[in-house]
Amino acid sequence: MLDTAIFAGGCFWCMVQPFDTLPGIEKVISGYTGGHVPNPTYEEVCSHTTGHTEAVKIVFNSEIISYKELVEIYWKQTDPTDASGQFQDRGDSYRPVIFVKNENQRKIAEASKQELSDSEIFDKPIVTKIEDVMPFYEAEDYHQNFYKKDPLRYQMEELGGRQQFKDTKWNK
Taking every annotated instance into account, which residue ranges of this chain make up the domain Peptide methionine sulphoxide reductase MsrA (predicted)? Predict the structure, then answer.
């Protein structure tokens, strides 16, 4: 059965590959959500005037991979203690958010967030928001599957802080 999940965790370029390569993932779409302007462009979102954040919409087969598993993978792609952006990407358009579409997703996300908080992996509080799904607008084609289209630039973005963070926090 196909289902969807929407996660924001900094630059959407770096959020696609960790999900795209998993069994049960049908598609990972880069886009914008959480704002007040219909059909925003990348330039508009970058202007920080639309209220949108960069996000990925994951279409997955829930018989192969669960929403809970996706949430657990999400936490390992972000710094859940930084509400002002992610790594080298700063500002509201890069804020960490789990967008939930129903009460079941909300319960799973909140329980996972509490479990992460209780683990004491982090010295600071977990500030990632859990919000209701809002309209999701696909980003321009050149943003889709960026890690495949421009692997060198993707690697530079990933090494700009995200990978170093994952190496220190999650490998303890």
Answer: 4-155
Q: Any idea what the CATH number is for the domain that residue 39 is in?
A: 3.30.1060.10
Q: Which of 5, 11, 98, 126 is catalytic?
A: 11
Domain range for residue 65? 2-161
Q: Does position 154 have pLDDT exceeding 60, yes or no?
A: no
* Lookup result for tokens 């802080």: 161
The closest alpha carbon to 91, from 40, 46, 126, belongs to 46
CB burial class (10 A; 0-12, 13-18, 19+) of residue 167?
A: exposed
In a domain? residue 172: no
- Residue 124, classed as helix, strand or coil, is coil
More confident residue, 88 or 98: 98
Q: How many domains does the chain have?
A: 1
Distance CA 6, CA 119 (A): 24
- Of the candidate ranges 35-39, 42-46, 87-91, the one whose mean pLDDT is the lowest: 87-91
| Mean pLDDT, all residues of the chain | 85
Tell me, yes or no, whether 22 lies in a domain.
Answer: yes
Residue 11 bears catalytic tag: yes
Q: Which residues pair with 126 in a beta bridge?
A: none
In a domain, 169, yes or no: no
